[in-house]
Design a protein that fits this description.
The structure holds two protein chains of two kinds. By secondary structure, chain A is mainly beta. Chain A has two helices and twelve strands; from the N terminus they run βαβββββββββαββ. In chain A, strands 1-2-3-4-5-6-7-8-9-11-10 form an eleven-stranded mixed sheet, sandwiched between helices. Chain B is globular and about 90 Å long. Chain B has two domains: about 90 residues, Alpha-Beta Plaits (2-Layer Sandwich), CATH 3.30.70.20; about 350 residues, TIM Barrel, CATH 3.20.20. In chain B, α8 crosses α10 and α11 packs across α14. In chain B, β20, α16 and β21 form a beta-alpha-beta unit. β12 of chain A pairs parallel with β5 of chain B, so a sheet runs across the interface.
């Protein structure tokens, strides 16, 4: 099913998507409509254009493929499913997601993957082809973030990466750790990527039609918190 | 030589002639105060461990126990209280931020007790609630809709979703994790029987309690714990927590020690790691951003559920509330600075925010001035202690009240303010199975139902006395209130006349 989004509100678009009997729904001419695909369960949504904020919020199993740039809060509190963005994504991409995967071809803005979690068998992942802005993985409690850094390995992430991080892992294609890592986050140089990271990068390459081995031999850093309880010593009972 | 800087605050007084050394107090005290001394053949107590929760006093079969404030005293000093001195000892020892729980216990002025309620006489007779119908039922939500008719001239239902309450009281947000499973069970059962709502807080909704969904408000806070489609779908309403009266401006932090497997499962987080709610929502930096979260939640639930935005009462609450009323939210919940908490930094709890009475009066006034009062309902919390507080809140402009501390007291809480330790002898603020089972959810529900039923009768009596037969007719009716012992500016802020002044 194909839907022309021109002149339509997000509410009507989402209603039309939900009402469709087809599994695959294509939406064209999207210009700034927010909340597309919110809490969607079992559809494949292909979007052409530039949707507004909160694309795929609370997503619960559906697949969204966007041919264009995404705005803020893509995949907010996503539970399951997949979002593929052929372009850049804005701030707070994957905020508090606890399942599913987000693949971004280009860059992401500030606060990507903030408060990402893991839960039972759900291990969310975000793979970013380009750079990530400041506050990447802030308060991260679980899951995996991979930043491939695009052409330039020296500027993979912005400032304050991993502030308050207390779970999960961040993989950066970079030779040097970010300049402002918090004390509880350690950065280890890794020569051979583990299988689950190789797999995520392979999936990213496949989705964006890149050569599968373009990052072979690159230097990677693995960031992990050294405690699941970063603020334990901060308090005294009164 | 080891010096004890902090001396016991309480003294366990045992009447030896009544004590039978049955050792029940020993078994009931998770703080380890009581023990049996075989040499003396008698019970002994370690006063230093006592938090004055009164559990031992309440269960002692012979009534042999009493807890008293220790009469050991530092040299009297009107400037340096004992607490102030002890807190310095604590911090000098640990280097830690002081952590407290429950509401602000300090001697700030409060206003509920300085407001007096009117009664009718002679010309406008009072109503006998035992004989005449009294309406305490109300609806929460946006009332500001345009009237539309279909082609045949019939009215279209354009009313946004609302919550219907039989009494203007709801149980405020307390998360599973901060309180026990049995507390949630009791609150849920009571809410169902009373035709009101309880609030999950930001700890997710336990699978066992989905069946109480139509009496449940689910919370979405900065940590987004347990928030997913089923959770949102299960609820009657969704509350976005922007702030909490006990700790405005900061987030929450449930230590891993309180996160059992079941709590982690319900919060949908990894076991063993802290549950940290960041101070702000990291996607909300403006009213427009707040609107985005409100609307995305409505979109996710098909516009079938009202959205509440909870904020703490702070200095610029009027402007905040005005923004919230324009955000698409259906209800504003305002939490005053005496509101309770399972854990908050002492300095924040005791110094940040303003009394809810003032915040409520100003917000109601501001929204009226701006012509947007009907966009939202107002719910207030933060130390509502009795039906009289509820009635005064409604007269000041509230649609309904949230109670947290009062509900926990009904369940046995003795306000020892030790929730943050995770050892609660009353089975309330704990996850230890042996302690949790002390609170029987059915008995707890019964006590909550009794409390609110009693408050309902009291509300009806007070309303009847005023000659008002519907809670809706009381809302914002400040002429029914008079202030006593207040300054002119306080009276002005509350919008009430001084006691003694006529209509």
């Amino acid at each position: 099913m194909k839907i022309d989004a021109r002149g339509q509100t997000a509410k009507r678009l989402n209603a039309a998507i939900a009402a469709s009997h087809d599994k695959v729904v294509e939406v064209e001419g999207v210009v700034g409509q927010r909340y597309l695909g919110t809490a969607l369960v079992d559809k494949i949504l292909k979007i052409d254009g530039i949707p507004g904020n909160a694309l795929g919020a609370y997503l619960d199993g559906a697949e969204i493929e966007l041919f264009g740039n995404a705005q803020e809060a893509t995949g907010d509190t996503m539970n399951a499913g997949e979002i593929v963005i052929h372009g850049n994504a804005g701030d707070a991409t994957g905020y508090a997601m606890r399942g599913g995967k987000i693949f971004v071809e280009g860059d992401v803005g500030y606060r990507c993957g903030i408060h990402m979690k893991a839960y039972r068998d759900a291990h969310p992942a975000i793979v970013i082809g380009g750079r990530a802005g400041s506050f990447l993985g802030e308060y991260q409690a679980g899951g995996t973030i991979v930043v491939l850094g695009g052409e330039d390995e020296s500027r993979t992430v912005g400032y304050f990466c991993g502030t308050g991080m207390h779970g999960g892992e961040i993989w950066l294609r970079a030779a040097q750790p970010p300049s402002t890592l918090p004390p509880q986050v350690r950065a280890d140089k890794v020569d051979t990527l583990p299988e689950h990271i190789e797999e995520l990068i392979e999936q990213w390459c496949e989705k964006f039609e890149k050569e599968p081995n373009i990052y072979t031999g690159s230097k990677f850093l693995r960031l992990t918190p050294d405690t699941a309880n970063p603020y334990k010593r901060l308090y005294t009972a009164n | 030589m080891k010096v004890r800087y902090i001396l016991p605050s309480f003294e366990v007084l045992r009447n030896e002639s009544k004590c039978t050394a049955c050792r029940l107090c020993e078994r009931q005290c998770a703080n380890g105060v009581h023990s049996f001394d075989p040499k003396r053949g008698a019970m002994v107590a370690d006063d230093a461990k006592c938090v004055n929760c009164h559990r031992c006093v309440c269960v002692c079969p012979t009534g042999a126990l009493k807890i008293a404030a220790s009469n050991d005293a530092y040299r009297a000093n009107a400037n340096w209280s004992r607490d102030a001195v002890d807190e310095i000892y604590r911090q000098a020892q640990s280097g830690g931020v002081l952590l407290s729980s429950m509401g602000n216990p300090n001697t700030y002025p409060e206003f509920w007790n300085r407001l007096l309620i009117n009664a009718s006489q002679v010309t406008n007779p009072s109503i006998d609630p035992l004989r005449e119908p009294m309406e305490t039922r109300l609806r929460l939500g946006c009332r500001n809709v345009t009237i539309e008719r279909d082609r045949n001239g019939r009215l279209k239902d354009t009313l946004p979703p609302q919550l219907e309450l039989d009494v203007p009281v709801m149980f405020s947000a307390m998360s599973y994790g901060s309180v026990s499973y049995n507390v949630h069970a009791a609150l849920a059962k009571a809410a169902e029987r009373l035709g009101i709502f309880y609030n999950t807080g930001e700890g997710g909704l336990h699978r066992d309690f989905y069946k109480y969904g139509k009496n449940t408000i689910v919370q979405v806070a900065s940590g987004r714990f347990g928030v997913f489609r089923d959770y949102l779908d299960a609820a009657a309403a969704i509350e976005i927590k922007m702030g909490q009266g006990a700790k405005p401006g900061i987030g929450g932090h449930l230590p891993a020690a309180k996160i059992t497997a079941d709590v982690a499962e319900t919060r949908m987080i990894p076991e063993g790691s802290d549950a940290i709610s960041p101070a702000p929502h990291h996607d909300i930096y403006s009213i427009e951003d707040l609107r985005q979260l409100v609307m995305s939640l409505k979109e996710a639930t098909g516009y079938r559920k009202p959205v509440i935005v909870k904020v703490a009462a702070v200095h610029n609450i009027e402007a905040i509330a005005s923004g919230v009323a324009r955000s698409g939210a259906d209800v504003i919940a305002i939490d005053g600075f005496r509101g309770g908490t399972g854990a908050a930094p002492t300095r924040i709890r005791d110094n940040v925010g303003i009394p809810v009475e003032l915040a409520l009066a100003r917000v109601d006034e501001r929204l009226r001035e701006e012509g947007i009062r009907d966009n939202v309902s107002i719910v207030v919390g933060g130390s509502i202690r009795s039906s009289a507080d509820v009635l005064k809140a409604v007269a000041l402009g509230a649609d309904a009240c949230y109670i947290g501390t009062a509900a926990l007291i009904a369940l046995g809480c003795h306000l020892c303010r030790s929730c943050h330790t995770g050892i609660c002898n009353w089975g309330i603020a704990t996850q230890r199975p042996d302690l949790v089972k002390r609170l029987d959810p059915d008995e707890g529900a019964e006590r909550l139902v009794n409390l609110i039923t009693a408050w309902k009768h009291e509300l009806e009596e007070m309303m009847g006395g005023m000659g008002i037969n519907s809670i809706e007719a009381l809302r914002g009716n400040r002429l029914m209130l008079r202030g006593i012992g207040m300054t002119d500016s306080e009276l002005g802020l509350l919008g009430v006349k001084p006691a003694g002044e006529s209509m």
